[in-house]
């Protein structure tokens, strides 16, 4: 009985309680604007051409081999993404816009896993969640046309965004609880000294071992603590200050593009409705918008509420479990990378490899080596050379290529060396295994040679 | 709560900091001086190497003038010697593919092999050629002259005839002169650039960006080692990248007996540059080796510079077992070539993976975001 009341209490406090809609509206505008800037920046830097049109081969995610760049039409994907970002900002045909944005953005990310970044994944799943939230029910073109605006929405809509952001930080934090990060200050000990050209701190702080440890430990504590600091009213401002300082600092140190700004703006969702109301009333005064002739709804009831909540609930259960799927695999996660992606393991490794592929005629024993730059861009070769699923996919591509060129009994072997977090490079893939015969699957890859060291941690 | 957390953070910081007190790494202020390394590279290695090479080419030019003036065996021998000396000098500068050398595609013009005999013959016969065309790379440079001096006939007399009594004799003499002049001009321009403004530009660009001098030259170093040395000189002719051996692809194909000497010269240039050894001297300065040693005082890992040096030495002794004439070596016992290749290959992993990881320099200009 008591549990029942606790549950009911939880439900009314965190799910059904009515709360002002303004935080969602501010989030919608911030998200839309940042996405538009991201798309323009990507285009302006020439990355569409460089990453999706110039390469002749693309690395696919398992099960998504059908997702490929569309040649010159790839630009349309980015145009769609950009246009829907504007529609999201304005709240114009919101539902259609956010669904289209989610699909086009995710398609772009699936085209080549060479470019995988945790923050692109974050944008993909965030935009998925936003499909189910009523971000356009106030201060939007949709509400202008329908002459209807709402004051309140159920609190779970805001909480689901908070939860997603909290998961990102918290999981990124616990992933840092490992012996390389905390015990050896790796990989910061490699990365920070190379920032010698920063003004003031470059040739002083960045070269100090104590500073590498301090950054490792405080980075871990920061990631774990941030969700709680932001959730708790009294520490919220301090937490937000940390968010700004930390992200600006990482932006100075590392080439992480728009990610710091996205996280800073997203963190605003944790502030009180009053704060967001001020932003909206400021925007209303700028755009001379008023709701005089609008029907004002007190509370927006989510249509098919149970179904929606069910979908969002399943989504979060999946999100909470996904990062732990590595437990199902033998061997060191950082080494095999089986279950590494989609888990908020951000900037944890300095890993480099060298993969030299050998094409052998199984009957005659004649063999020759492949020049990787004939098939891959420098970026693709770099990413391929230390990730087993890339190596396997590329081996098959090579096997198919040389078979179609008339080579007989093609077998594909690789001599691959990988260095992880400052350890000396060692053989990575069994050079005796014909990779052309191995199939991609979710099963452990037996041809990855075991890691000779140990990394303790979560 | 705020106070508690701040105190917690402070304690964490103090613990993290004090854990360093009993280690000896990363002492305060003894940062590695990259400007000193760049200065050493420019003033003591690159510019002297180009100056010496430029002198070699001047000698080659003189010998060419003498030969085209009086076509005889003595002048041919002198010309061949001058060509050989300059070819050896070239091995000391090929890896510095930076600045004007990079923008003028210098090394393609100087040493693209195998040379294209058909195109050379057609140029000689028809005239009106433009050596600055991309598709003329294999009709000029050292390999082009190699063909003219050693490949025009089976005997020296036949070769001398081509330059004296052949119906195209004047054409051959002009073409030879044009090739030598072009090499001299290209080299002189680059040397002038280095001794002019480029030296300061190079030395002052000491940051860690894709276009800074350290990053570019380290990338050039690795590229030369992998391509110019390992693949071109040994790997490709030994059939590492093809189903069959390709003896026609050896360096100095027509001269034959100097391929090994040129390989060793190239490897020595690599070793000397790695060690920061002054050109034509035994003095050393700041280098990739000393940079690695500095970083190792922070990282406290394996002694990478020693591993690299040892691997270069193994490669050198394996190459030492080859005969001077690679065509002969490939046709009689190609395994020796493959063994030399394997030793060169092992160092690729060390410099391309371990050294680059230590320097934290990207392999190429990958300017996309990371996370």
Protein traits:
heterodimer, A: 458 residues, alpha+beta, 3 domains, four-stranded antiparallel β-sheet, three-stranded mixed β-sheet, 18 helices, B: 371 residues, mainly alpha, 14 helices, 0% strand, disordered N terminus
Brief sketch in words of this structure:
The complex is a heterodimer of chains A (458) and B (371). With 458 residues, chain A is α+β, with helices and mostly antiparallel strands.
Describe the structure.
The complex is a heterodimer of chains A (458) and B (371). Chain A is α+β, with helices and mostly antiparallel strands. Chain A has three domains: 226 residues, no CATH class; 85 residues, no CATH class; 88 residues, no CATH class. Helix content of chain A is 52%, strand content 9%. Chain A has 18 helices and seven strands. In chain A, strands 5-4-6-7 form a four-stranded antiparallel β-sheet. Chain A has a three-stranded mixed β-sheet with strand order 1-2-3. Chain A is globular. The model of chain A has no long low-confidence stretch (mean pLDDT 94). Chain B is mostly helical. Chain B has 14 helices and no strands. In chain B, α2 runs antiparallel to α3, α3 packs antiparallel against α7 and α13 runs antiparallel to α14. The longest helix of chain B has 36 residues. The two termini of chain B are 32 Å apart. The N terminus of chain B is likely disordered.
